[in-house]
Design a protein that fits this description.
- 74% of the residues lie in helices and 0% in strands.
- The protein has helices spanning 6-98, 102-110, 112-118, 127-131, 137-143.
- It starts with 5 loop residues before the first helix and ends in a 20-residue tail after the last helix.
- By secondary structure, it is an all-alpha fold.
- It has five helices and no strands.
- The chain has a domain at 51-81.
Length: 163
C-alpha cells in the first residue's frame, strides 16, 4: 500500500529512537501498533460492508429476474389456459350441435309409431340390423366373422370313426 521497504523502516526506527529516546520508544511502538490495528479493523469492516452491499444487490437483482421470469411464465400459462378453454368450448359447441334438442326428443317420444317399429319379435332380425344389411355379396362376406358362421359340413370323403 505505502510501498515501504526495509531500508525506509530502518531509517524511521533510528529517527524515532533519537527523538523519543530508549525509555519512551516501546510505549510509542505499542501505541502505534494499536492505531495500526484499529485502522486495519476499520478498513476490514468497511470492506466487508461493501461486499455485503454488493451481495445484497446481486441477490436483489437475481430476485427481480426470477420474479420477472415467474410473471412471464404465469402470463404464458394463462394464455395457454384461455386458448385451451376456448378450444374446449368450441369443441363442446360442436358436440352440442350434433345432439338432438329437447323439443325433438319430446316429439319423438310422443309419437308411438317409431317405438312399435323398433320392437323386435323373437326370431326376427332387429330393424337396425336390416337397415345396416350389406348391399353386395362382398360386403356381406366382409361383415361375417368366423364366429358367426356354422362349421362346414363334413365331406363324404371324410370318414368319421364310429365307436
Amino acid at each position: 500500500m505505502f510501498d515501504v521497504g526495509f531500508s525506509e523502516l530502518l531509517v524511521i526506527a533510528v529517527v524515532a529512537l533519537l527523538v523519543l529516546g530508549p525509555e519512551r520508544l516501546p510505549k510509542a511502538a505499542r501505541f502505534a501498533g494499536l492505531w495500526v490495528r484499529k485502522a486495519r479493523d476499520q478498513w476490514n469492516s468497511v470492506k466487508a460492508e461493501f461486499e455485503r452491499d454488493l451481495a445484497d444487490e446481486d441477490l436483489k437483482r437475481s430476485l427481480r429476474e426470477t420474479q420477472d421470469a415467474l410473471r412471464d411464465a404465469q402470463a404464458s400459462l394463462r394464455n395457454a389456459g384461455s386458448s385451451l378453454q376456448q378450444e374446449l368450448q368450441s369443441a363442446g359447441d360442436g358436440v352440442m350441435r350434433g345432439l338432438p334438442t329437447a323439443a325433438s326428443i319430446a316429439a319423438e317420444s310422443a309419437d308411438p309409431a317409431p317405438l312399435e317399429s323398433t320392437r323386435q319379435l323373437p326370431g326376427e332380425p332387429h330393424a337396425a340390423a336390416l337397415a345396416a344389411a350389406p348391399e353386395s355379396a362382398d360386403e356381406e362376406q366382409s361383415m361375417h366373422t368366423p364366429m358367426d358362421e356354422p362349421p362346414p359340413p363334413a365331406d363324404a370323403d371324410d370318414e368319421v370313426p364310429q365307436r
